[in-house]
Amino acid sequence: MQITTTAKIQVQVLPEQRELLDVTMDKYRDACNFVASYVFQTHDLKQLSLNKALYYDLRKRFGLKSQMAQSVLKTVIARYKTILENQHEWIKPDFSKPQYDLVWNRDYSLSQEFFSLNTLGGRVKLPCFTGGMEKYFDHERYSFGTAKLVKKHGKYFLHIPVTTDVPESLDADICNVVGVDRGINFVVATYDSKHKSGFVSGKAIKQKRAKYKSLRRELQQRQTPSARRRLRAVGQRENRWMQDVNHCVSKALVESNPKHTLFVLEDLSGVRSATEKVRRKDRYISVSWSFYDLEQKLKYKAALNESSVINVDPRYTSQTCPVCGHTEKANRDKKKHIFCCKSCGYTSNDDRIGAMNLYRMGINYLAMDSQVPDTVVPQHI
Ligand SMILES: [Zn+2]
User: Fold this and answer.
1) Residue 275: CB partners within 8 Å, gap ≥ 6?
2) What is the Å distance from ligand 1's center to 347 Cα?
3) d(CA 330, CA 312)
4) CA 339 to centroid of ligand 1, rounded, Å
5) What separation in Å is there between the alpha carbon of 199 and the centre of ligand 1?
6) Interval 209-234 mean pLDDT
7) How far apart (Å, rounded) are the C-alpha atoms in residues 263 and 339?
8) Which strand (E) or helix (H) includes residue 161?
9) Interval between CA 356 and ligand 1 midpoint (Å)
């Protein structure tokens, strides 16, 4: 199985190189818009015939080198294909920001210290900071794809897709099941095959989120351009902070479990189920987004460790008795944080119950032989 992640690195550009880079990226962007207009009129998405029709203009009008001209065609074709796939109609893409797509080993090369690329003025070598991505330079294991050079707030960044092959985790190899319940009081509560529970407290996160929320509200009330700018910046900062938390939590989950672990998560893709997890006052967009982000990160890291993640039906996971299967709302006393089964009397802290039920559903999933559906309904319902 191939998995791909995007590595982002900042590139150091000396003042005298800035102009060269800027001109190259601007011309590339302009050429993309030129090709996009032509494709919009002709609906032609074939590289060969586009090349025939536009190559001369790309060389003469935009001064592109041959390889850059090919890259522009590829970029525009790919963008149209994505639009057609998602929106099913011809919409002209707008390449508004300066950009430049670079093919590995042809248009760019990258070592741990230097990034070198083709520009309109020849090859340029730039220092870059690749800290934290040392392992990707093992090209036996990882390969770099077509990178995108972008400019943001006057700084230059390179986004590189990094692909690696990992052996697929087979259900038959699974030696450990972990139910992972996402929530507010606990970021995650877990329950595993050794019948051990684990918790990551959400208290500090809850406080910080509340702080961001009041800051956002304050800025929203002020209708000035600078408040709007700050609002956007605060949103981005909260976003980065949340991603960082999710990175740490998912990393810890994968590292504290052996290879061939099956992580069982609730399927929160339905809007209703995502919001039902969260009390009304906590229901704002960043919570469900954060749940989703954690899941994506866990899926990626699990795959790297030959483990896998399944999603199961989220209904009743907090009301079902993990021992006898009896399902009743009254089993759970939300205020006292106690779960007490009305049928068999099993009693536990209510935060464990969700994770225990998810664990149980993971075991059921493994017990079912053929034709496994994506979403598994617990057997006692
Ligand atoms: Zn019971």
Assistant:
1) 283, 288
2) 8
3) 23
4) 10
5) 23
6) 90
7) 23
8) strand 155-165
9) 13
pTM of the model: 0.76
Q: How far is the CA of 288 from the centre of ligand 1 (A)?
A: 30
> How far does residue 184's CA lie from ligand 1's centre (Å)?
25
* Dist. CA 311–CA 61, nearest whole Å: 52
CA–centroid distance, residue 342 to ligand 1 (Å): 7
Signed CA dihedral, 62, 67, 68, 69: sign only: positive
Q: How confident is the model at residue 131 (pLDDT cuts 50, 70, 90)?
A: confident
Instruction: Say how many Å lie between the CA of residue 331 and the centre of ligand 1.
Output: 9
Measured from the Cβ of residue 178, the count of other Cβ atoms closer than 10 Å reads: 28
377, pLDDT greater than 50? no
Q: Ligand 1 centroid to 172 CA: how many Å?
A: 30
Question: In the beta sheet, which residues pair with residue 327?
Answer: 320
Alpha carbon of 320 to ligand 1 centroid (Å): 8
Residue range 36-61: mean pLDDT, rounded:
96
Q: How far is the CA of 340 from the centre of ligand 1 (A)?
A: 8
Ligand 1 centroid, distance to 135 Cα (angstroms): 49
Give 354 Cα–ligand 1 centroid separation in angstroms: 14
Percent of residues, the chain, with pLDDT higher than 70 = 92
User: From ligand 1's centre to the CA of 180, what distance in Å?
Assistant: 21
Angle (CA) 351 355 356, round 5°: 105
Expressed in angstroms and rounded, the spacing between residue 2 Cα and the centre of ligand 1 is 43
Cβ neighbours, 10 Å, residue 353: 26
Task: Give DSSP secondary structure letters for 167-196.
Answer: PPPPGGG--EEEEEEE-SSEEEEEEETT--
Distance separating alpha carbons of residues 240 and 250, to the nearest angstrom: 15
Give tens-digit pLDDT for 230-257. Answer: 999 998 899 999 999 999 999 999 999 9
The Å distance, Cα 293 to ligand 1 centre, comes to 34
pLDDT given at position 130: 87
Integer Cα distance of 250 and 153 in angstroms: 30
Please give the order of strands across the beta sheet that includes 332-333.
332-333, 338-340, 347-349
Query: Which residue has 């590995």 as its token pair?
Result: 104
Does residue 292 surpass a pLDDT of 60? yes
